[in-house]
Write a structure and sequence with these properties.
Blueprint: H1 6-15, H2 21-38, H3 52-62, E1 74-78, H4 86-92, E2 97-102, H5 105-117, E3 123-127, E4 137-142, H6 148-158, E5 159-170, H7 179-188, E6 192-198, E7 207-213
Parallel strand pairs: 1-2, 1-4, 2-3, 4-5
Antiparallel strand pairs: 5-7, 6-7
Helix pairs in contact: 1-3, 2-4, 3-4
Length: about 210
C-alpha cells in the first residue's frame, strides 16, 4: 500500500481535531483492511489501493471542519459504502454516535466486520435507502452517495433545527462551478450554506466542502 498517514494527521489538525496515537493506530488498521478486504470485495475500485490515505481517509477527515467548535453528538453517514467518511470520523470523535447507512447488503456485511475489528462501540450499521429515512438528525455527511442537489434536499428534510450537513463537492483546487447554484438551492430551502476550501498544502490537490445549517 502506498501513501502516508501523515496526510491524515495534517488534515485532522487543520480541522481542529489532532489525532492521538491510539486513533492513528486505528486508522492504520482501517487502511490495511480497505486494501486487503474492501477492495477485493468490490467496495472500492481496484486501483484505489495506491491512494487510500490521501484520496479516502484524509479526505474523510476533512469533513470534520464543518464542526469547528465541538463534534456533533450523532451523525448519519449517507451511502457510506465501506465506511467513508463515517469510520474515520468515528475514530476521530469516539463519543459521537455515528450511523453508517447503506442500502447494499454486501457493503453492510463488510461494515459490520470492520466496525467490530476496530471496536467502534458507538457506531451503528444500518441497511436502508436514505430516501426512506423519516427521522431527524443533528449531523449528516455525504461523500458521493447521492447527487449534490439531492444532498441539499435531504439535508433540508432530515436535519433537526440547528443541525449541520457536509457534502464533499470537489477534489480540485479551483472553486466548483456548481457551488453558487447549490448555495442558492440550500438558501431557498431555508438553510444557511457556505463552501469551505481545504487547501492543497493540507490535503494533496485541495478540496471543497459544502456546509449547510438548518
Amino acid at each position: 500500500m502506498n501513501g502516508s498517514s501523515d496526510t491524515a494527521r495534517r488534515v485532522a489538525e487543520w480541522a481542529g481535531y489532532p489525532l492521538n496515537a491510539t486513533q492513528c493506530e486505528a486508522l492504520d488498521r482501517y487502511a490495511a483492511w480497505l486494501v486487503e478486504e474492501a477492495i477485493p470485495a468490490g467496495g472500492l475500485g481496484p486501483r484505489e489501493g495506491d491512494r487510500i490515505w490521501e484520496r479516502h481517509i484524509a479526505d474523510a477527515l476533512s469533513f470534520a471542519a464543518a464542526w469547528p467548535d465541538e463534534p456533533p453528538r450523532e451523525l448519519l453517514d449517507v451511502g457510506t459504502g465501506v465506511g467513508l467518511p463515517g469510520i474515520p470520523l468515528a475514530v476521530l470523535w469516539p463519543d459521537c454516535a455515528v450511523t453508517l447507512l447503506d442500502r447494499g447488503g454486501r457493503r453492510v456485511r463488510l461494515l459490520h466486520r470492520i466496525t467490530g475489528m476496530l471496536e467502534l462501540a458507538t457506531t451503528l450499521v444500518e441497511q436502508a435507502d436514505v430516501f426512506a429515512v423519516a427521522d431527524s438528525w443533528e449531523a449528516l455527511a455525504f461523500r458521493g452517495s447521492v447527487t449534490a442537489p439531492e444532498a441539499v434536499g435531504l439535508s433540508s428534510k432530515l436535519l433537526e433545527l440547528g443541525g449541520r450537513a457536509v457534502l464533499g463537492l470537489s477534489r480540485r483546487p479551483e472553486p466548483p462551478a456548481r457551488a453558487p447554484e447549490l448555495l442558492a438551492l440550500a438558501e431557498a430551502m431555508g438553510m444557511a450554506a457556505e463552501t469551505r476550501h481545504v487547501p492543497a498544502e493540507v490535503l494533496d490537490g485541495g478540496a471543497w466542502l459544502l456546509i449547510m445549517r438548518s
